Protein 1
Amino acid sequence: MTKTYYLAYGSNMNLEQMSKRCPDASIIGKGELDNYQLLFKGTYPDSYATIIPNKGTVVPIILWAISEQDELALDVYEDYPNLYRKEEINVKINQESYQAMVYIMNGDPSLTPPTISYYSAILAGYLANDIPIDTLHQALLDTYESSVISEFN
């Protein structure tokens, strides 16, 4: 069975969610993606996590090994190729380099707060994987700050 490395930074860090969606998936490890920023973008209630290049910032990630069937399930969940596109990114986990597939949101939708349930799913993934929640909270704060500023412009 061919395995693909998949880099998760949002709700697919949630172990329970991934076990249901991608039963063949196994965790390679956790780490950080350097020079990227986590954001929430879309139109409420359809606001989801994405990453953008941003020098000097990092995004916590989980690296999964997934099967072809898992990838097809993720394609449906991520609304590929409409909402998200796939890119290849090099990442280091436990001193080993991997070429990993990652979903990145298409276009440049506005920063928009996510639903509580979506945010909670991501938070559960951070907590279950012992990942500090600073980056996740900062993404939410950045989103709310942008929303407030745009309301007054």
Protein 2
Amino acid sequence: MNLPLWTVSGGVKHFEKISTSNRSFREYYDTPRNLFNSTYDSIFGLKWNGGRVCNPHDTMDLASLKDCVNEYNKQGIGFNFSFTNICLKEEDLDDLACNFVLENIIATHHLNGVICASKVLRDYIKTNYPKVRIIWSVINGLKTAEEYNEACEDEQNYLVVLHPDFNHNPKFLDELTHPEKIEVMANDACVFGCPYRRLHYTMLSEYAIQQAANPIIPSLKELDGTKSSLYKTEYGTGCIAALNGYVRDNRNILSFSDIDAMLDRGFQHFKLIGGREYDWKTFETKWFENYLKRYPARKCFAECGMGN
């Protein structure tokens, strides 16, 4: 049976729920198969963070973080740290906390990796830890099939994340020559064609750097007036596009039939986002149960002749 290989957001924030769900699934169905293949997240205060806000109440100490990742690894599940800061400089590569995580948590298991958006950071990781998987982030803003094909052919990249605006563009998808190395975001709810993506990613990257230097800061608003002109208290960390009148119409979200079509095209890797933004109950009922349990059940019914 041709099923997606899933990575799931919220591996730290929802650690207990996600890891328990997987164990329960395996025990109930008496199967060695996991619900998902990897998870991703990060913790508050790490300078290399980017792409999302890690709040103080969602964090854990480094010893507990190591235990968390080890538990996933014991289940045969990889853990990818979202080190997607796009504002890093050479001097930021010496950060003690991030290097501790890289050396003592990420590099200790072959299934673990780093979601990366900085060539400076990627080169540093591959030079010092060549076996660590690099997932080339959507934050890089690749725009053409040629750029995606080139990124997929780069041996440093284990996977390349597809911009969700291309999810329903069959012509574009057919131009991708390495679909097996593409990771598809299945439930992206951002504004289609958002003109603020790069600005927002930059804001969040600079926020992470400030947050690492000032770990007691709980809110982006408290950083207003710093050297960065990008910090605007009226935006905070929310969706800039929505605050400027754009509508989230959910057009990038994949249906089960869309996933079928993607699999037929050779795409294997799919990604559930939003684990950090949603509370567990919402994330579980809206995305986790739907894609990770109902979709495989639908495929099973179809293959044994019980489908439509």
Protein 3
Amino acid sequence: MSSGPRLLSILALIGLSVLFLAPACAGSPQEELDSLVSPGEQAILLEILGRIDPPQRIRDLARYGRRQSDLGGGFYGILPDQLADGEAIPVPTDADSRLAAALHLARQRRDNLDALARFNPEFVTGFTGRPLIQFLAEVEGMGVGSPADRPDLHLHLDTSALDGFLEALLDDGEITEQEASELAALPGNQAMLQHRRELGYVPEPLPDTGSLAAMIRLAGSTDPLDQLWCWLNPQNAFDYADLAWHVQEYRDLVLQLDENRNGLTGFVLDRIGRFTPPDVSLDATFALTVGWAIRGWVTPEMAGLNIEQVKDDWRFLLGTMIEETYHRLQLELIPSPEGRSVSDFSGLVAVATGAPRYDRFYEILTYTVAEGAANQVRGRFAAADLSAKAAGGAELLDRFVHDVVLAGAIDEADPLLNEGLKGNGPLYGLGWELAGLVIEADGPRAMGELQRKGPVAFVKRGDGISRLAGEPLLSPAVTAALDTLQTLLLSR
């Protein structure tokens, strides 16, 4: 794993000592450390350990996990505790104990990365090095700027949240409290925090501006314990740890985005324009930010992407930009069931029909339509297995109708919704199939027009097309529930 200039400068101070590490004996601590950490990182790690004063202070790392959780950057038990037993951490007082401490930390880091791979296998841990301009040249139909036939669609790329963090570290190797506060208050970061708050299912405590600033400051600190904490896990410090240890790689990434922003945003708009009614306009910002466990996000003000989730996986990045920008458009496209403007998807899915069971049915339908349509717009950059998930999505919706709508087990609504949506789940596949049927029968822009009529009309149209083809997608129980819900909506 490579390191940012701030930490590479440490190597310059160490000189070539890394080349003269004592040869490892078979089965020795040094041999195990060699298997876990590259020689360059070993040199950095040992140098940091040597700066801890007094050495006993290393055991304060046991308190970092609790502090991180209190700031809203915890892992909610999804990832393992880190260094929870401070007394077990070797105190680095001499060469042997520094080696023992380095090995203890390296084992924890290995466990962290293994857990991360299980929890979030899509999290990109390395950089490909592939130039963005090369990727864009290979994308067929790339647009430059706003598409000629849709000059009313505009998208502005905002990289200020990344620029400020990276430039501060490149300038003087540290981020001050003032700089961290200014970064946390940027519009992109504020929108990212707003989206996280408004999701409704992320447990407390949630990060606010002050706690985000504290985590940015931690990642930009020169304190040896802060540096070790960030080295342990790329997802520490709300994922800013990843940037702190890959400063130059992220800086190169942002420079490529700046140089190719017209090509990138042009392709996004070109793709979205094909599915957007002619009287719908868009003037939106797409912000690149940092944030644990969430890849894309959207608010009324802007859409965004937490860049560390994809790095320079350009297909993933472009696909996420398309999907989240279209989600931003859907806030205006899909009608609010209460006829009022809404600030997020929770406002689109909330309806009061007088029958709570059908209110929850409306919710699951809206999410299914929104995600399915957005992934059809994403097109070639969508997950390859969505179509294969359609049958599972139809089965889950049938269970929802039987358990929640008919049997009245409203407590089952959230677990079923989570099962259907988590990790591009089966409801994504069902939505993909419904939207695909509409596009094939009526055309791309008709999909946008149909969303204006609401999720019930959209699902009924997609299912109706499947029945005309002799391959009904939805069960009789679901179609009957759709009819009842439509009646309830019309009678309000």
